[in-house]
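tool=predict chain=A
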Amino acid sequence: MEILYLIIAFLGIVVLSYFRLKWPKIKGELGEKGVEFYLSFLDKDRYTVLNDLIYRNDNCSTQIDHVVVSRRGVFVIETKNYKGRIYGSAGKDYWTHVIGWNKYTLYNPMFQNENHIRFLIRKFPYLRRYRDSIHSIVVFLNAEQLKLSGDCDSVVRLCRLNYYITSFRRDVLTDEECSQIIGMLSDEQWDDPDAHRKHRQNVRAAINDYERKLSERICPRCGGQLVSRKGRYGTFLGCSNYPNCKYTH
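tool=predict ok
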């Protein structure tokens, strides 16, 4: 009987360790499914929802959580599943994520999603003519508080996501244009059953390359040199190509 208890305890530890290891991935997928479910309540005659899009991007890849296509525009949605409080500014590279007394840094999700939009326009030149009709949305699922400054109207909680999308009332695309955009976005996805795993590998490689550049004092944005500067809040690293490149760390 004691051996049985030991086996059960060992299996429990293994399962718990595996769950902790996979929790960030599981958390992200649950968040995306929550947004997918919420978007399903949009009028299906007016809005087409595309979820979890992965595209090849040169030697790496790009994942876009959700895209909503309608006569009122194209909405590119980035999902963030953070608890706690979020502090940020529309023009700052990094925001602050606070849980209890702990503070963490996250890359400005508005910039992240703008990069997604630029990628789509680069991959699908047809979209260039509709650039003003492509809207970026960042949705926070579980944040207790969003303390944002600047033009951050497109950063919303989940409960306001559909309201924000439907607040655009003017038709800017025809049904034919919507169908063409939907067809392009759907047909050009990365056709690989293992695309999600490979994409995660690409993300890890990109993070490692970013950290390597920082350690070598190379600007991750333009390739210039990072130099020490003094500001009102202390010393920081800034790009030597300023003002053409305004990267700081």
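The mean pLDDT is 83. The helical segments are 2-39, 109-123, 161-166, 175-187, 195-215.
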